[in-house]
Design brief:
By secondary structure, the protein is an alpha+beta fold. The protein has a five-stranded mixed beta sheet. 23% of the residues are buried.
Amino acid sequence: MTSNKTTGDKGEELAAIYLQKNGYAILERNWRFKRWEVDIIASKNKFLYFFEIKTRTSNRFGNPEESIGREKMNNLKNAAEEYQYLNPEWKYLQFNVLAITMNYGEPIEYFLIEDVYF
Protein backbone atom coordinates (compact mmCIF):
# COMPACT_ATOMS: atom_id res chain seq x y z
CA MET A 1 0.00 0.00 0.00
CA THR A 2 1.39 3.40 -0.93
CA SER A 3 1.10 6.52 1.17
CA ASN A 4 -0.92 9.55 0.15
CA LYS A 5 2.31 11.56 -0.16
CA THR A 6 3.84 8.97 -2.51
CA THR A 7 0.67 8.93 -4.61
CA GLY A 8 0.56 12.73 -4.67
CA ASP A 9 4.22 13.03 -5.65
CA LYS A 10 3.76 10.50 -8.45
CA GLY A 11 0.65 12.31 -9.62
CA GLU A 12 2.42 15.67 -9.72
CA GLU A 13 5.24 14.14 -11.76
CA LEU A 14 2.74 12.61 -14.20
CA ALA A 15 0.88 15.93 -14.34
CA ALA A 16 4.03 17.86 -15.25
CA ILE A 17 4.77 15.42 -18.08
CA TYR A 18 1.16 15.52 -19.29
CA LEU A 19 1.05 19.32 -19.27
CA GLN A 20 4.36 19.65 -21.11
CA LYS A 21 3.14 17.22 -23.78
CA ASN A 22 0.09 19.45 -24.17
CA GLY A 23 2.06 22.64 -24.76
CA TYR A 24 2.37 24.10 -21.27
CA ALA A 25 5.67 25.45 -19.98
CA ILE A 26 6.13 24.55 -16.33
CA LEU A 27 7.24 27.63 -14.38
CA GLU A 28 6.93 26.38 -10.80
CA ARG A 29 6.18 23.18 -8.95
CA ASN A 30 4.94 23.20 -5.37
CA TRP A 31 5.22 26.99 -5.16
CA ARG A 32 4.60 28.19 -1.62
CA PHE A 33 3.70 31.41 0.08
CA LYS A 34 3.02 31.32 3.81
CA ARG A 35 0.72 28.32 4.29
CA TRP A 36 -0.58 28.30 0.72
CA GLU A 37 0.74 26.11 -2.07
CA VAL A 38 0.17 25.79 -5.79
CA ASP A 39 0.97 22.35 -7.20
CA ILE A 40 1.95 23.58 -10.67
CA ILE A 41 2.19 27.03 -12.21
CA ALA A 42 2.50 26.95 -15.98
CA SER A 43 2.21 29.22 -18.98
CA LYS A 44 0.76 28.78 -22.45
CA ASN A 45 -0.32 31.34 -25.06
CA LYS A 46 0.21 34.40 -22.83
CA PHE A 47 -1.84 32.88 -19.99
CA LEU A 48 -0.63 31.95 -16.53
CA TYR A 49 -2.21 28.74 -15.24
CA PHE A 50 -2.54 27.64 -11.64
CA PHE A 51 -3.09 23.90 -11.37
CA GLU A 52 -4.41 21.89 -8.48
CA ILE A 53 -3.42 18.26 -9.02
CA LYS A 54 -5.43 15.48 -7.40
CA THR A 55 -4.39 11.85 -7.71
CA ARG A 56 -6.02 8.64 -6.57
CA THR A 57 -5.15 4.99 -7.00
CA SER A 58 -8.81 3.94 -7.19
CA ASN A 59 -12.29 5.41 -7.36
CA ARG A 60 -13.33 3.63 -4.18
CA PHE A 61 -13.80 6.95 -2.38
CA GLY A 62 -14.90 8.91 -5.46
CA ASN A 63 -13.09 10.63 -8.27
CA PRO A 64 -9.99 12.69 -7.45
CA GLU A 65 -11.58 16.00 -8.40
CA GLU A 66 -14.41 15.42 -5.92
CA SER A 67 -11.99 15.79 -3.02
CA ILE A 68 -11.26 19.47 -3.71
CA GLY A 69 -13.18 21.67 -1.34
CA ARG A 70 -13.88 25.37 -1.08
CA GLU A 71 -11.04 25.94 1.40
CA LYS A 72 -8.51 24.37 -0.97
CA MET A 73 -9.68 26.53 -3.86
CA ASN A 74 -9.59 29.67 -1.68
CA ASN A 75 -6.02 28.81 -0.69
CA LEU A 76 -5.14 28.38 -4.37
CA LYS A 77 -6.67 31.79 -5.13
CA ASN A 78 -4.75 33.45 -2.29
CA ALA A 79 -1.47 31.93 -3.45
CA ALA A 80 -2.20 32.99 -7.03
CA GLU A 81 -2.83 36.58 -5.94
CA GLU A 82 0.56 36.67 -4.24
CA TYR A 83 2.28 35.07 -7.23
CA GLN A 84 0.75 37.62 -9.56
CA TYR A 85 1.77 40.45 -7.22
CA LEU A 86 5.36 39.16 -7.37
CA ASN A 87 5.13 38.63 -11.16
CA PRO A 88 3.00 41.53 -12.46
CA GLU A 89 3.83 40.85 -16.11
CA TRP A 90 1.08 38.21 -16.14
CA LYS A 91 -2.27 39.78 -16.98
CA TYR A 92 -4.30 36.71 -17.88
CA LEU A 93 -4.84 33.98 -15.30
CA GLN A 94 -6.72 30.72 -15.25
CA PHE A 95 -7.33 28.13 -12.56
CA ASN A 96 -7.41 24.48 -13.61
CA VAL A 97 -7.76 21.12 -11.90
CA LEU A 98 -6.00 18.05 -13.24
CA ALA A 99 -7.41 14.84 -11.80
CA ILE A 100 -5.35 11.68 -12.26
CA THR A 101 -6.54 8.16 -11.56
CA MET A 102 -3.97 5.37 -11.41
CA ASN A 103 -5.98 2.14 -11.12
CA TYR A 104 -3.67 -0.87 -10.88
CA GLY A 105 -3.44 -2.71 -14.19
CA GLU A 106 -5.30 -0.02 -16.13
CA PRO A 107 -4.13 2.95 -18.20
CA ILE A 108 -3.67 6.18 -16.27
CA GLU A 109 -6.67 8.48 -16.65
CA TYR A 110 -6.31 12.26 -16.91
CA PHE A 111 -9.26 14.59 -16.47
CA LEU A 112 -8.51 18.29 -17.02
CA ILE A 113 -11.05 20.76 -15.71
CA GLU A 114 -10.29 24.15 -17.17
CA ASP A 115 -11.22 27.63 -16.00
CA VAL A 116 -12.49 26.63 -12.58
CA TYR A 117 -14.52 29.28 -10.78
CA PHE A 118 -14.94 29.40 -7.04
